[in-house]
């Protein structure tokens, strides 16, 4: 059995590819989104289909249609858009009017600019006024080559995004953390060379590399994909309707909500019986049982592996070897924490610093007992967050 290499930097020879436009999309929405369309309504690509009702400049972006078509269903997690019905005999085909490019992006700044970006589909929760902006230019996981390909192929778009962010949040310093072997730079950025070994490519460790502090105040950190999305909106003046996704050895511009199965078919990637599929990379990705789900806009990869390539995980007993403790970049004890969760003692994980977990998956990677370590730790954080939210609601109602 082979496990993936932990080096994330590769030699990029390919260019950004275009995925075909699907006939149906399932566009993911968040619980806070308010749909503004109805079933059987015709919509145009770029039209707002769900809003964030909050009025502030920082938060989750609006959701837009990514194809021309008709709303087939509105679900709690997605809005489904399919092809428009064929016109009846003697009727003219439907006319889809695309939105006009926004002209205000170059004339506004600060919170007003953040609000406009939010309405164009950008999640602006990361973009708060700060002294320092750290751009994570490292590939996020082994096999996920989005960052380095965009730095090679989309530099003007990235610099357009940087120009908009500098006007939106006015950072005093901008750091670009890059693999030591790469020579790329961006306008106005201070380049910080870094190792490309995972997990040193994840945001908290990248911030420490750039600033020298583990938890600095007044620092924003964004990925190259985040920067590209801002730049793409800035260059076109149009809403965000796409994701940049690694599939196999290629990187594709994909309409948001394209069913995963359609994307795998379009890229000739094997799937089905004998194959396992996950959203995002091999270390932190979420396994998929239903390939009809739509690709989210912040997805960086679709990972496909053949069954048997990795040892299966299961509720195997911990053998107290300590490998997970040695591998943990946060310096916590994943084995102990996983056993608290396993035996329904989730509250005990608070005092053992579960909040410091970086969600990197290294504990599962090195575990010789093949325990589902990352899943246990994620479950603990979800249960604690739900409990805290319930307590906060009770206090408000008193």
TrEMBL record:
Residue ranges constituting the 4Fe-4S ferredoxin-type domain according to the UniProt record: 309-339, 348-377
A GO-annotated cellular component: membrane
Annotated Pfam families: Fer4_9 (PF13187)
PROSITE patterns reported for this sequence: 4FE4S_FER_1, 4FE4S_FER_2
Entry superkingdom: Bacteria
GO molecular function: 4 iron, 4 sulfur cluster binding; electron transfer activity; metal ion binding
InterPro entries: 4Fe4S_Fe-S-bd (IPR017896), 4Fe4S_Fe_S_CS (IPR017900), Ion_transpt_RnfC/RsxC (IPR010208)
Keywords: Iron, Iron-sulfur, Metal-binding
Protein name per its UniProtKB record: Putative 4Fe-4S ferredoxin
Species the sequence originates in: Megalodesulfovibrio gigas (strain ATCC 19364 / DSM 1382 / NCIMB 9332 / VKM B-1759) (Desulfovibrio gigas)
Gene behind this protein: rnfC
